[in-house]
């Protein structure tokens, strides 16, 4: 299954426990293919560099390098303007389109409010993990 994780999932997965971390673990072990774009990697880097997280620039560089090594990098060719209230969220849609993703995993209300976009389901990290656990039981 190909997924695109929103930046909030990546950051939460690195800094905290819970479903986002489980998703990163799945991606790092080949359970799913997490796709991302250069724009989403830059956003993750910018967020991780915020003083409130207390990470040093070299730590952030290592984290972003791990993302690059673990995730499939896609290069969107079509711009999207579907989310007007928070235009930065369109980068997630662009990456999902370029990746031919099956799911977008996000905690963002603008993305989750869409529920589905161009046939790609948009789910929270908790819902995604429930879906994975259900598939594993079948």
- State the share of residues found in helices, binned by percent: 40-55%
The percentage of residues in β strands lies in: 5-15%
What is the element string, with H for helices and E for strands?
A: EHHEHHEHEHEEH
Rounded mean pLDDT score:
96
Low-confidence stretches: none
Q: Which CATH-level-2 architecture?
A: 3-Layer(aba) Sandwich
Number of domains: 1
Q: According to CATH, what is the topology?
A: Rossmann fold
Number of strands: 6
CATH homologous superfamily (4th level) name: 5'-nuclease
Describe the global form: globular
Query: What radius of gyration results from the CA coordinates?
Result: 14 Å
What summary fits the major beta sheet?
6 strands, mixed
Q: What is the number of helices?
A: 7
* N-end to C-end Cα span: 16 Å
What order do the strands of the largest sheet run in, or round the barrel if closed?
3-2-1-4-6-5
The SS-based structural class is: alpha/beta
CATH class: Alpha Beta
């Amino acid at each position: 299954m190909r997924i695109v994780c929103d930046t909030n999932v990546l950051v939460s997965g690195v800094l905290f426990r819970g479903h986002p971390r489980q998703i990163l673990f799945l991606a790092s072990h080949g359970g799913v293919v997490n796709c991302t774009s250069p724009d989403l990697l830059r956003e993750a880097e910018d967020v991780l560099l915020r003083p409130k997280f207390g990470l040093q620039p070299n730590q952030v560089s290592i984290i972003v390098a791990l993302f690059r090594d673990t995730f499939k990098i896609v290069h969107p060719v079509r711009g999207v303007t579907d989310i007007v209230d928070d235009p930065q969220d369109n980068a997630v849609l662009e990456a999902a389109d370029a990746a031919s993703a099956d799911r977008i995993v996000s905690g963002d209300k603008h993305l989750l409010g869409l529920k589905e976009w161009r046939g790609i389901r948009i789910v929270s990290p908790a819902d995604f993990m429930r879906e994975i656990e259900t598939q594993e039981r079948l």
